[in-house]
Amino acid sequence: MAYRHHPLDPLAPEEIAKVADVVRSTAPNENLLFRVITLAEPPKRDMIAYLDLEHAGYNEPAHPGRVAKVHVYLTGQFHEILVDVTAGKVIVDEILEGRHSHVDSVYMKQVEAACIGDDRVQAQVRALKLPEGAKVIVEPWTYATDGMNDMSERITMCWFYMRLADHADANYYAYPIDIVAEVSEELKVTKIHRLPSSVGETVNNDPKEYDHSKVHSSSEYHPDLQTDRRQTTRPLQVIQPEGPSFEIQGNSISWEKWTMRVGFNYREGMTLHDVRYDGRSLFYRLSLSEMFVPYADPRSPYPRKGAFDLGNDGAGVNANNLKLGCDCLGHIKYFDAWHVTSSGEPLKMPNVVCCHEVDDGILWKHTNFRTGNAVVTRSRLLVLQTIITVSNYEYVFIFYFGQDASIHYEVRATGILSTAPIDLGDKVPYGTVVAPGVLAPYHQHLFCLRIDPALDGHQNSLAVEESVPMPFPHESNPFGVGYVSEFKVVTNEAGLDLNHQTNRVFKIINENKINPTTGTPVGFKLLPCYSQMLLAHPSSYHSKRSEFGAHAVWVTRYSDSEIFAAGAHTMQSLGEEGIASWIKRRQQSHKGQDNLEKTSVRNEDIVVWHTFGSTHNPRIEDWPVMPCEKMVVGLKPVNFFDRNPGLDVGISTQERNKSVLVGEKDPELVGKEAKAKL
Amino acid sequence: MAYRHHPLDPLAPEEIAKVADVVRSTAPNENLLFRVITLAEPPKRDMIAYLDLEHAGYNEPAHPGRVAKVHVYLTGQFHEILVDVTAGKVIVDEILEGRHSHVDSVYMKQVEAACIGDDRVQAQVRALKLPEGAKVIVEPWTYATDGMNDMSERITMCWFYMRLADHADANYYAYPIDIVAEVSEELKVTKIHRLPSSVGETVNNDPKEYDHSKVHSSSEYHPDLQTDRRQTTRPLQVIQPEGPSFEIQGNSISWEKWTMRVGFNYREGMTLHDVRYDGRSLFYRLSLSEMFVPYADPRSPYPRKGAFDLGNDGAGVNANNLKLGCDCLGHIKYFDAWHVTSSGEPLKMPNVVCCHEVDDGILWKHTNFRTGNAVVTRSRLLVLQTIITVSNYEYVFIFYFGQDASIHYEVRATGILSTAPIDLGDKVPYGTVVAPGVLAPYHQHLFCLRIDPALDGHQNSLAVEESVPMPFPHESNPFGVGYVSEFKVVTNEAGLDLNHQTNRVFKIINENKINPTTGTPVGFKLLPCYSQMLLAHPSSYHSKRSEFGAHAVWVTRYSDSEIFAAGAHTMQSLGEEGIASWIKRRQQSHKGQDNLEKTSVRNEDIVVWHTFGSTHNPRIEDWPVMPCEKMVVGLKPVNFFDRNPGLDVGISTQERNKSVLVGEKDPELVGKEAKAKL
Predict the structure, then answer these.
(1) Record: contact A365-B394, CB cut-off 8 A
(2) pLDDT score of B454
(3) Where would one find coiled-coil regions in this protein (chains A, B) (predicted)?
(4) Which of A9, A145, A365, A394 to mutate to test the interface with B (most CBs of B within 10 A)?
(5) A65 pLDDT exceeds 80?
């Protein structure tokens, strides 16, 4: 049987429709609310066989089949169903007892309406005596477990703001209001609190009249409301007269010796598969596994602010529809994605990933000082970018591929800070006052990049190398200048830390493949993003729920089910379901003689996870909308190839690059300026 | 009297010529060898007065005068002479006893000739039985003090290589030969050694026949010799239909609210002065102060490989003549520099700095999820780039200025690894075999960026902030999620270390200016480049000579004479002349009651120095020419402004950016591809 879709292609709309039909037909009497219909990626074992044949040139290797994972509420009960797409049959139907689906925007709108429509809420708002014309905005947030409520029911926190300018895009985060409400699964307002607004203040239920001196005019970002816009930036355009250098067929990209497949799902958003360079296998899968944004304000109910933006919200469902010339410059290829409506119809999400090229300055250069001859190449990068909006914040996620076989993964945080009210003149040690009465609480952004390596095969290892001074005084080091590298292969699953002071380098290697020149195993090294790990106390719910935040580098044995570092179900989770618990359970269940074997990661199919991020103690310069804060992680070959893989890149010439010389008194410019001044 | 030149302008050619005349006239009977005629920047005290008046709008503030610093050998004696350029008079004439000028390329060529012409050298080379047609190349290196010779005389180490291909740009570093010679000031070969070529081997004087199986063909980079060049990279051009966004008058640049002056000298190369944003003073001077490249091979004479690429070689004199469309893409403004010939003539160095703009993706974005309206701005950067060649290596030094008032300083290391011979099949723990018989020894690149701040004035402080968990269990932190920032102002001169685990942030602040909204001192934070510090033993010459390599961040009281972190004269220096010694001496000389006051750096005119770099244990992918290794340092406002300084950047539109949509089956492309295949 010929399959139309590659096994790693996301589900096509007709597949989504078919799966919805299958589910409907199995539950004819149920009230159905679809949340997810997504590809269940084939087991890796099957995929390896498929990819091996595919790359060996077979036209139609035995297809591992198309299976869909469905999240659906059947009359209120949350099910995870696996459907054989081709056969049109349910394979597994499991009720996820005590679990909650990711954020449901339809439900959230109902929560908002219920909250704002509640009589007690209305009374509290009236008591605040807000400024004339203020429109109250309710911002629903998922509930970060704090031990104060039963988590088996969905609870939504409703934070209050107001919009003052008469414009739909006015920045309401500039006017946080000091009340908060809890809304139950059944859309009932169960609690209303006043928020603390000065240090040490505890929650009480007496609303305080809104302090009108907090009204200010410096917090707008929308062009309609922020008029004094600089006119000095002249246009800069990228032209590619012969088109881009990449070729794309479906979800497969080939560019400058790289080949890979782009995937996309509701949760991780963009994923990359079967990444190869010059025909050699490098990575089976690259993806953002999870992210956690815990807030530092210790005062109740702020500890409930702690967002799993993948597990709770979904990087896929929140992906922006990228606009040509706005989000992307140059020759742009867009990838669309397909999600599902609550009634099971395929839902197109256009332009969720853009693919284009950028120039990145010098790739390599050498001038022979004897002849004066310079040889220069410029670095071209392939960019795969996706941008998500999660309420106030946006995140830009970018993979860059280099001609030198390097990969960089960049996260940019932008958007608007989450805010809280503060009394004028007050300060707290866990937040920055960014406008009158506006506190931007400290918080962390912790990302976990999942790196599933396949360096020349699937049996890989993780090594830790440090650079250490040779003993001195010692006859082998008479001048005290010697240093050596010390190399250790990690034998068992573990969480490990960075140390720039010892130049600790994490290398993914294949011990079965020795580089014939260097005599060392072929490998790729991680260029980490040095970051502070999770600050919450190890016994806190924050810590237990985001175990990946405890260490910068983790290595585990591959498992088809271990994709999400904080666990498969993060919404109101109780913790101990993440990467540390997987490791601990395996170690405990294999105590005794086979302990080491079952948790061994040496020369096995392994996964490496890198936790990084920022301790974001806001600056006023992050307000009212934050210039991108960049975090970058790299993967670079280390004794993998036989030389610089970018050695053969074309020499940089003016003939091709057509730069323009700017004279100090460029007549054309002077003319234009003179004209502009008239 | 009206001065033609701004006090910070580098010396103009007519000034250089005049100064040379003045020096000649004072030494009519001497044999003159000019090494340097450069601007002696005015004392900061005078410059502050000048700049204050200049920025207050005075047309011709009292000029602090033009003074030239001259390095000249008068009949073999090394002098430092200060000349009042306008008056044409010598102010100071000092003999620099026991000091040596930076590398003299004329002399180095004489060294090469003397070495290769030496009979014993010839005999040693003959005994090696090199391959037919091999051309022996002698590479002279400065001598890193190792205690084995008297350093009052200049000594040059001559390393041997051979060129096999019949091409002037063939890569001779691919064939290191295992002899080395020392050449004296008087051009005599004083010692010849055979180099060790396996672990533990010590130097002896029996040359070993060249192992012909080391001859290989995989180490060429020049396009004439490396023919299999990829043809897949299609052109990418930058067009700026209205020209660049910057305006340049002489050495003054204004761009997107930034103003600054570009300086250039033989030693530091590019320097930046009087850097302001939106009229507010930020930095008095930014410059690379020094760099040190010590090698890890402990075997004599390799410990003599330790290059001060600024102090010994000069980032200015080794600056490349940048080529339009090769080194720089877009609309490029070049700055020239003027050096001096050995006979005192002005020597033009064209295109040593390029100035242009690049697009850097998203600057900020927010989508209001309620309205679906996205507002996006793109980030434009101003780039100031210079590239230097120091024998085998090149360094790219780039300042990036952002519209959000951020500055980034990037160093890219590229070029060719310094190599040494190794026996086939051998390995050493302090080097990588990159080609048959070619060892690329481990080494470090340590850079020191000198940051002379002037944040809203010249009385600044350095603060250290860490993010620390609140006590738990504790009533103020009931859920264990609270964390606060702890802020300490550094009171006395010191060397300090990085700590990503505590999110240690170094902030330069002005304690006299409190941000009215945040209630905290205005400041800029350092985004450090996390790096291993110097590995050489503290008692080694390497350590004593490069004191800045001991700590990542230093803070000192400003002194007009403290520009170079390893001392003013690094060539064959004996050490203890650098930043640690300055601090120590001041502390010792002020022991007692006024100790703290004299070394106080709180609310004083201070300088902050950041040491960073790479422990470069070569990869084979760095061979035969190394793809750029990037190191980036940032400076970002932190509660300096009243909001995001890039808030007013124009909204990104397709109308201005003119991107091109790539269809999956773009007919034009398909046509071109079909054509290409015919």
Answers:
(1) yes
(2) 98
(3) none
(4) A365
(5) yes
Cα–Cα distance for residue pair A362/A238, rounded to 1 Å: 17
Cis bond before residue A294 (omega within 30° of 0) = no
Q: Which helix (H) or strand (E) holds B433?
A: strand B431-435
Contact B639 A396 (CB under 8 A): no
Residue-range domain boundaries for chain A:
13-95, 105-214
Q: Active site includes B309?
A: yes
Whether this prediction's pTM lies above 0.95 is answered by yes
pLDDT of residue A644: 98
* Candidates B309, B404, B456, B605; catalytic one: B309
Residues of chain B with pLDDT under 70: 1-2, 198-205, 590-597, 664-678
Average pLDDT of chain A?
94
- Across the interface, whether the CB atoms of B535 and A467 are under 8 A apart is answered yes
Q: Which CATH class is domain B13-95?
A: alpha beta
* Torsion from C-alpha of B207, B212, B218, B224, nearest 10 degrees: 90
Measured between beta carbons, which residues in chain A are less than 8 angstroms from residue B469?
A: 535-537
Q: Are B479 and A541 within 8 A, CB to CB?
A: yes
pLDDT digits (tens, 9 = 90+) for A532-556: 999 999 999 999 999 999 999 999 9
Residue B393 falls in the annotated catalytic set: yes
Q: Report the chain A residue with the minimal C-alpha distance to residue B542.
A: A481
Q: List the single residue in B with minimal CA-CA distance to A293.
A: B481
Q: Which residue has tokens 């905005």?
A: A137
Rounded Cα distance between B142 and B571, Å, is 8
Distance in angstroms (rounded) separating the CA atoms of residues B348 and B341: 10
Structure-token pair, residue B631 = 């190191």
Q: How far apart are CA B302 and CA B423, in angstroms?
A: 17
Task: Note whether A389 contacts B367, CB cutoff 8 Å.
Answer: yes
Nearest Cα residue in chain B from A661: B332
Interface test with chain B among A219, A371, A472, A660, by most B beta carbons within 10 Å: A660
User: Which CATH code is given to the segment(s) A105-214?
Assistant: 3.10.450.40
- The dihedral through the CA atoms of A508, A514, A516, A519 has a sign that is positive
CATH topology agreement for domains B13-95 and B105-214: yes
Query: Phi first, then psi: what are they for A309, rounded to 5°?
Result: -70, -15
